[in-house]
Design goal:
The chain is of the alpha+beta class and 86 residues long. It contains 3 helices and 2 strands; from the N terminus they run αααββ.
């Protein structure tokens, strides 16, 4: 076997592959942490309520508490008021 062939069969991962293999899960975890913090801050502040209730004469939604841990899934407690007029 030539030296090039032995290098191709080397079972040790290359540093670049090892770096990507560790970097991608860390980046995904950081993205999830950022999402959870930012989304929960937005839900607990008046920002989301103001965004939803732009025209309260047509639609008004109020709640006491809302949290999210996964994108697209929001747990809402205590609907105080829901009003939709056409």
């Amino acid at each position: 076997m030539t030296r090039e062939m032995r290098a191709d069969l080397d079972p040790k991962p290359r540093p670049r592959l090892r770096k990507w293999g560790l970097g991608i899960p860390i980046a995904l975890l950081a993205l999830e942490v950022f999402y959870v913090v930012a989304a929960n801050v937005a839900l607990r502040s008046q920002f989301v309520a103001d965004l939803i209730n732009r025209k309260p004469e047509k639609m008004l939604i109020q709640w006491s508490s809302a949290t999210t841990y996964f994108p697209g899934v929001v747990h809402i407690e205590g609907f105080l008021h829901v009003r939709i007029r056409q």
